[in-house]
Amino acid sequence: MDNDSFGDGAGQARPPRDTGAPDFKKSASAPARTVQLVAGDFLLTVNPVDGSEIEPCPPGQLPTRPGRHSEAERTGRQRAAQPPVPAGPPAPRLPLLERGEERERLVRLLGHGRSVRLTGPAGSGRSALLDIVAEDCANFAPDGVVRLSGHHRTPTELLHELFAAVHSAPLYRPDRAALLEHVKDIGAIVVLDDLEFGGAALGELLDAAPECAFLVAATPDVAAPAADSHLEEVFLAGLGRSASLELLQRTVERPLTEDESNWAGDLWFESEGLPLRFVQAGALLRQCDSLRTDPETLDDYTPFDGVQEVDVPLPTLGEGAAPAALLASRLSESARETLRFAVALGGEVPHQAHLPALVGDTHADAALGELMSCGLLSPVGTRYRLAAGVMAQLTENGYADEAAAHAHTAAQHYAWWAGHPSVTPERAVAEADAVLAALGMLVSGLGASPGRSSGGEAGHPSAAVLLARSAAPAFAAGLHWSAWERALRAGSEAARIAGEVAEEAYFHHELGVLALCTGNLDRARAELETSIGMRGALSDKRGTVAGRRALALVEDRSGGPVVAARTPAGEEAPAARSEQSASPPGGVPAPVLPLGRGIGPGPGAVGAPKEDEEPATLLARQTPSGGGAKPSRRRAVFGGARRNLVAAGAGALLAAVLGTVVTLGATSDRQDPPSNKVRNGQSANEDDGSDGLDADEPADGSTNSPGGGPADDPKNPDPVTPGASSSTGAATPAGRPSSNSSTPGKPATSGKPPTPTKSSTTKPTPTPSSSSPTPTPTTTPPASSPPPSSSPPPPAGGGEGSSASAPMTSSAAPSDSGSPPVI
User: Fold this and answer.
1) What was the pLDDT predicted at 620?
2) CA–CA separation, 741 and 745 (whole Å)
3) Under DSSP, is residue 213 helix (H, G, I), strand (E, B) or coil?
4) Structural domain boundaries of the chain?
5) Were 188 and a residue from 139, 143, 633, 738 both cysteine, which residue would form a disulfide, CB within 3.0 to 4.6 Å?
6) Phi, psi (degrees; rounded to nearest 5) at 167
7) CATH number for the 67-237 domain, one of 3.30.565.10, 1.10.630.10, 3.40.50.360, 3.40.50.300?
């Protein structure tokens, strides 16, 4: 991979290194880099300005089942997955000594479809053995060999990388169900180095790809796999004494002297035969040979002394066991500065294309070759990092004294580089570990001294925010979502410390969108609500709208209530419902059922509501007594359900009442009284008879009127209360007959007598709507007498003080005036 692939844009000069505060921000004229991709069934638009936008993916944009890479494409991807070749002369490839038995066993097990776990200490040569075995198994599986790195990776991330390595699906990240569906059909030899998890997580990874044979390499401190994982265990021990001396001799590229052989024997006993120690020991011996013939060293001696070389002593056993500081002291200044950056970034070594800008030397890219030849670096995926034990040795020798300053410089450079339009998301993802290490170093410094300003040595919140804003969209577009989440969380913490509310709202919005894409709806709701609140306080309309759209999508997926809007006063409005099912704000009013005088809600009745009181309802109002406080969601939801049920019951009851009224009106009073009879609700003419009202005498033993009126006794007349309700309709003011009453003198339409009803004498009461001060008594003209057997006994004490009980259904319908009926 050439340097230009990770370099700056065409025609763009690298920013000069400045230990102060260089500005690596991209120019304002550069367009915003937006990327649209499909995540599950969502259409995600990564917008680095206002925040990502998410919506359901239209059916036409959903990807079809992805196809597989061809063999040539797989070969190209494997070559690109290897770390770059260091600049400078190529180093000789060392042989694989004393690993033939392990090699044959691994190839045999993988050929039979068995998965194997290779365990060995750091520096035992696990990566070199994996390279050889991967070449031997190239033609074993239909999907070839897939090389993955487990460094800082979870099982889900490894499954997504396995999917991308086999299938051709650009800008598509399947959800969990689709991912498992695609991965279970992959048949490949998966070589997984630097695994950092075991136990149930490893079993989950193996079960997700049953057609794959896994070769995983881990250190002994990683948790063992589960008992039912069916993994074969192969342990990789150190080399023997003879093999260690042979490896040292091949590294020096000359025969060893007797003193060097004795020194190597002591080193073998101390290091337990780890190959890495002998690679580093060989680098020490090469440096000694260079010092013996170095012209600068020979300048201290005159040519007349005949000195051709300087006697450089062998390193001590302690220096051979921990050679990093001694090896670094004999390297170039660019190589030592690269080591300082690596220590500041937690062991991550920047790509060689970034070293000239970071170190300030145009030839600093050659430093990577120096460090590799000394055994101070080891390959990890597509990059390099410090070899095992090197970081601790360099830290003890002062290479971490200026770690905060180096991390700040790296953060400024990566912020400028990641935000440049010429840098693709794939290139940003390849440098993700170094970028996140710089970001983590800045945030940890902020946590150590939160009171320091951005210009201090410990914390640089503004630089951390800028780096997170530049790198997070690139990680999202490159489908490296674990790096996306880490960048967002670090940026949110830095923005909180720096007091940049707008940037903090952006990070919360992105975290909410990420949680929605991964199916964590509770976290998505919390993050989006936080972002909406912050952006509302800042009057960020575009950001607030984007947040509300995403939040509405969360509520739709969770099946919860619709997001409530806000009233101008800031209160939460109730969720909108359809007009058919919406209940009145105060509940459903109870129908008034008059049960007699003094019980119904008429004027003056006992229990009637006062004018300043609310009418009685079947369900108490949902508004609590705490002023303007809104009810809880649980109470509102269940209260609305009860209100709807009560409304349905009350409507059914009211319909039954009205139906009874109509039935009674249709069946009663079929025969109109003769012209000399008076109907209920009509005024009698006192001049028609000298002895009162003319009416038919009731049958013997009967005191009730067949028409439902009082008994027609000339000696004891009992006029009906003016304005009382008739049996066929509601009462009208001033005792006038209702619209459905028959006209006196009109012939009857049916000869069927009406049903007799119980009546009693009633004391006249004034009608509120009557204009006359003296009420006009009215009586009901009797009809033909019913049979004696059907007449009930007369009421006891049917004198003037008795009250007439009206039918229960006669006053259920409201009057035209809207006031409750008068009993």
Assistant:
1) 35
2) 12
3) strand
4) 67-237, 322-398, 579-605+614-682+707-767+776-783+800-823
5) 143
6) -100, 150
7) 3.40.50.300
More confident residue, 586 or 561: 561
CB 679 within 8 A of CB 781: yes
Residue 547 contacts residue 531 (beta carbons within 8 Å):
yes
733-769 pLDDT, tens digit per residue, is 444 444 443 344 444 444 444 444 444 444 444 444 4
Indicate yes or no: pTM above 0.90.
no
Distance CA 152, CA 222 (A): 13
Q: Are 263 and 314 in contact (CB under 8 A)?
A: yes
Query: 177 vs 148, 209, 242, 461, 810, CA distance in Å?
Result: 22, 13, 53, 39, 66
- Number of other CB atoms surrounding residue 725 within 10 Å: 24
Closest CA to 133 of 153, 121, 116: 116
Say whether domain 322-398 belongs to CATH 3.30.1370: no
DSSP 344: H
Please give the order of strands across the beta sheet that includes 172-173. 53-56, 42-46, 35-39, 172-173
Alpha carbon distances (Å) from 526 to 217, 511, 513, 516: 39, 10, 11, 11
Cross-strand bridge partners of residue 193: 149
The enclosing H or E element of 148 equals: strand 145-149
Q: Cα(444)–Cα(507) distance, rounded to whole angstroms?
A: 18
Q: Give the side-chain half-sphere CA count within 13 A for 703.
A: 16
